[in-house]
Structure formats: C-alpha cells, structure tokens
Amino acid sequence: xxxxxxxxxxxxxxxxxxxxxxxxxxxxxxxxxxxxxxxxxxxxxxxxxxxxxxxxxxxxxxxxxxxxxxxxxxxxxxxxxxxxxxxxxxxxxxxxxxxxxxxxxxxxxxxxxxxxxxxxxxxxxxxxxxxxxxxxxxxxxxxxxxxxxxxxxxxxxxxxxxxxxxxxxxxxxxxxxxxxxxxxxxxxxxxxxxxxxxxxxxxxxxxxxxxxxxxxxxxxxxxxxxxxxxxxxxxxxxxxxxxxxxxxxxxxxxxxxxxxxxxxxxxxxxxxxxxxxxxxxxxxxxxxxxxxxxxxxxxxxxxxxxxxxxxxxx
Length: 314
Prior knowledge:
The chain is of the alpha+beta class. The chain has twelve helices and 13 strands. It has helices at 3-17, 19-28, 53-56, 62-67, 119-128, 160-166, 200-216, 250-253, 266-269, 278-283, 286-296, 300-313, and strands at residues 32-37, 43-48, 83-86, 89-93, 102-106, 132-137, 150-155, 171-177, 180-185, 193-197, 226-233, 236-243, 272-275. The strands form two sheets. It has a ten-stranded antiparallel sheet. Strands 1-2-13 form a three-stranded mixed sheet. Helix 1 crosses helix 2.
C-alpha cells in the first residue's frame, strides 16, 4: 500500500476512533468563511476557526518552550494518536484542523525547526503525498513547535495561491536556471518567489542558494524568516517561498478594538487568513489583510532584486 493511501486510511481511522479529532473535524463543518478582495484583484479567504487559538496565541519564547513537554515527540503524544512512518518522519493527523484533511509530519528526532537540511525531504513528501500541499513554518513564522522539526500538509487546492499560480495571473517568469522556472509575483500584496521543475535536485540546489541570500540579510536569526509551500502537480514540483521580515503584525499586540489576534503562517500566506476569535472575523477587511501582509512580508520589488542576484550567481 502506498503512503498516500495509508495516509487516507489513517485519517479515516483517527476521525472515527479519536474523540478529540472527531469533534474538531466535525466542527470544521460549522466554520464560517468570507472572502476579501485586495488591491490588484487577488482574493483572500478568511476563516473563523476557534480551535486554532492554540496556534495563533502560542507562546514561542525560549522559556515557554523549555517549560512545556514537546507535543510532537512520540513519548508525549496522546495515546489515541497513531501515525504512518516514512523515512525519518511520522505522518500524523492534526487534531486542530484548518483543512478538511490536515496533517502534521514531525521528524522522528527532537531537532530544531530549521529548513535547510530537510528541504529535499519536503519535495519527496510532496511527491508521495500527491493529494496534499506540504508547508513549512519557520520558527518565527507561525511554527508553534519551533523546538521540533516538522512539516504540515493540507488537502491540495484549498489555498488560493495554488489556483492563482495555475492561472498565471500574478506570477511572472523571470528566468530558467538548470531547467527550473523561476517566478516573481506582481500585484499580489505580498512577496512570493516560485520555483517549478520536474527535477527535485535542481530545485533543492536553487533553494539552497536562495536560503543563503536571504540569510545574508538576517544574520541575527537562526535561519532566514520564511514560509514555504510545496506540491507535485502533473509530475512537476511547485515551490512557493514567502520571505518574511516580521513574525507578528502590530495589530496582534494592540489593545482593545484595535487588536486582531492573527499570527500569519504558511496558510495565511497562501491566501487563507485564520481568525480564532469571532470579533476578529467580523471586523477584518481587505485593508486589515493588506496592512498585515505589508508588515510581515518582503515586498515584491525586493523579491525581484533578490531573484536577479540569484540568477546571476547560480
């Protein structure tokens, strides 16, 4: 039985036999959504999902992490949580879902959330889990467990960025390097860099160089701030990189009515904003979304400069 089929059976089994997962996946059917249109025409969905308060409000400072057991280590997981092993990873159902099928894929060793050594694994998992989009949240870009390396995955097609790329509305081809097509996005209200190719090794090599260029400007960080999406479509790998400049926007820390408890991660970058509180869902509009993206994301012009440098040096 292939990994994709095993994973589907895992999801079915866990939703039937683990009450926490069963209740939270049932609650997804009650989740409210709305859409906002940004300047330039791109659409962002907004989801009111109270179950995600754990992630949005997660304390990720060193002391808080040190004081709690790691919930991704096998010894600390709920007894009901089962998994499917693949190489050095275990595929788990995420019991606090955003997607109708939502996975967490932790490394089997307790090791830091740093993408560089594990990016090739992301591509392999994207090929094996061909009905899913893999995503990576950096330690200051939405990861609620920055002490334990993991990916997440959600059912393919859920995030608007996938359709927007397929329809070539905003992504502009700026070069081809070792059979990897390199795109910069224009008018999308957030900087996005996209690689696509049938050659996983060539994409991994280009990603390594991009990682180094980004890190040169953020040497004070343990790695450059970024979110990454990866999926396999028509035998081609597609990787979207969202370079970040800030962990959480000012509205996260504001008081009273000015507060929006939104801590953007990969899914938000992909076009689905998660609001865990009803008051945030009700008041958030296109202006709020654009302001949050402008604060936390690298600007598209800076991404273009970066890509020109990347194509020159590779």
